[in-house]
Structure formats: structure tokens, C-alpha cells
Amino acid sequence: MVPTIVYSDEIRGYDFGPGHPFRSDRYANFMRLLRSSLDAHREIEPRCASDEELMLVHDKAYIDALLAASDGAWLRSSSFMSPDTPLQPGMERAARFIVGASMTAAEVVWKSDTPHAVGVGGGLHHARRSYAAGFCIYNDVAVCALNLLQNHGAERILILDTDAHAGDGTCHIFYRDPRVLFIDLHQDPHTLYPGTGFAYEIGEDKGRGFTVNVPMPPGASDQAYEYALDHIFAPLAEEFHPQIIIRNGGSDPHFADELTDLGLTLEGFRMVGEKVRQVAERVCEGRRVDLLGSGYNQTVLPPAWLALVAGSAGLDIKLKEAFRLPISTDSGLDETRRVVEEVKKNLRGHWRCLRM
Ligand SMILES: [Zn+2]
Fold first, then answer.
1. How far away, in angstroms, is 49 Cα from ligand 1 center?
2. Which pLDDT value is given to residue 90?
3. pLDDT given for residue 240 in this prediction
4. In angstroms, rounded to a whole number, what is the distance separating the alpha carbons of residues 18 and 353?
5. For residue 168, how far is its CA from the centre of ligand 1 (angstroms)?
6. Fewer CB within 10 Å: C terminus or N terminus of the chain?
7. Average pLDDT score over the chain
8. 102 alpha carbon to ligand 1 midpoint, in Å?
9. 173 closest CA partner among 126, 220, 237
10. Domains and CATH numbers, the chain
11. What is the rounded distance in angstroms from the CA atom of residue 50 to the CA atom of residue 60?
């Protein structure tokens, strides 16, 4: 089956301007590499998310404020926006297409016999209900999941967040919701933005046990990630039995990323994609969605996104590392074993599989 890629040039308006680490040339650079690397693929145009769709997650007053601000104004800070996320004219509309791409990718997988789709630009996981932060204004991951739950009859969704940063927005939105099992592998929040996502944060009320934070040590390598995926993600997915897996996260766990200190190689990204495919094939007839948005080394970003797609779609694509690996491929493995034990200890009252 050829990979299904949901992409619109409209998302190129999602650009924070000169000097900011999040620029929109990432999208065109990735699409150029993707189109030249794949023998065959299918591209689908996303829709522009409506107010009603955004309101699955976001407050109307917040949406209206972003709309008003994007109308030619330039906002560096306000009560609904952190200073690292300065809205530029045109961004609000582009963000709607990113949300639309994530929703479209999930709907294609949910409604057709296409088991896998990629939403380009998605994974804006720091956005809260009425607050923009961490380069994210609308939380497409949460809208995408709530759209399936509320409008398409889904009952159990697993979100796997492999971005280097903890997905604090998504975590907060689903913290009391047992319909969504949120598993988040990210760099130890003692050492990286947003400073939350500790192993003891496991959800509240009915959602207790349905938030799983796995803080990876700085330097965490391919083997460390593989260990965490095998010992946390795979068994929990088997026990929770989701109907679909939504994985978000781009290239920022790469060892050469400029904002982070993790240690994945391109082959490590491929491995992450492969694990998601294998687990999805075991638990939910292969239904999985990849949302790709992050990454701050522009040499690494296109091949790392492609590596994720190659692993998740099961494609044999050659990957060439542009930088020399500064650490060993088992870097951080011992510390990751300790973290995994801590995660299991906190959650074993909620999950049988973690008692072993
Ligand atoms: Zn990130």
C-alpha cells in the first residue's frame, strides 16, 4: 500500500519570522525529499479547520482573539500567548490547515481501508485551551483525537508523543479523560522546556493511570528509546487495546538538534516508526497516524521525518546521517531502565502488564 500524505501549501504560512527557530521552510524541504525518495505515494489536501472543530478543544474567546490579532497585527505577548510564540499575520489561517491535516489523516485511517496516514505540520502539543505556548497556537493532536471521539464514534485512542519536549498541552487536555491513553517520551523536564512531564504525573480522577510520562535522560540513544517503547508503550497498547494510534513528534530528539540534548539517530527514528507499525498491527488492525512538525536542525529535519515515515509505512528507504554520532548507541540505557522502573511503579495499580 502506498503511503498517504496529507499536505497543503497553505501551512507554509505557519512561520514565526526571521531569527525564530520555527520557520516554515521545513515543510517544503521535507516534501521535496519525500517526493524524490518515494517510488509512489498518495497526497491528499486537508480542509481548513472550522471554528466548531477548533472548539472541540479551544475556547471561543481564544479563537476570536487569535483571529482579531492575526488580522494584520503583530503580537509578541498578551494574556493568551507566551513570548516565545509571537503570532504573525497569516499564521492563524495556516494553523487551521495544520489542524485540518491532522484531522484529515485520522479520518482517512478511521473511515477507509487505508491503515496509515501522515499529517504534515501536526504535533502542536504545547497549545492549551486558551493559551498559545512553545510555538503552538492550536493543539491539532487534541482536536484530531476529540474529533474521532465526538464525531466519529471512537471510544479508545492511544496518543504516543515522541517529540523531545513533553506534550504539556495535550497532557493537560486529556488529564481526566480515560478515553485517551497518553504516552509521552520526552527529555527529562529538569533539563528542557516545558519543565513538566514527570513520571509521577499520571492523570487525575477518571483519567488516573491514563497519562504516562517517560522522562528520557539527556543523551538517550536508539537503544534507550527502544527499551522504553518495548517496556512501556507496547505492553500498555496491548492492554488498553486502542482503536487507533496517533503518534506525534518530528525530528527534535535527534542528536544534532539544536534545542535539545537527546541522542536518536536516523535509524532510531526509523525504529520508532517500525515499533508503532508493529504494535498497531497487533492491537488495532494497523490503524495509525503520524503527525510531523518539530525539529530545529534544518539539515536533520527532512531525513528524520522521512525516517519516521519509512518505519511507520514499512518502506525500505536509504538514510544517510549528515553528522557524526557524538555518543554511543546505548547512551542513557541504564538511566532509562531506572526511569522505566519508576514509571511502572507509579502505574502498576492501574495496569496489569506493568506488574511484571
Ligand atoms: Zn519539540
1. 23
2. 86
3. 98
4. 48
5. 11
6. C
7. 95
8. 17
9. 126
10. 4-355 (3.40.800.20)
11. 12
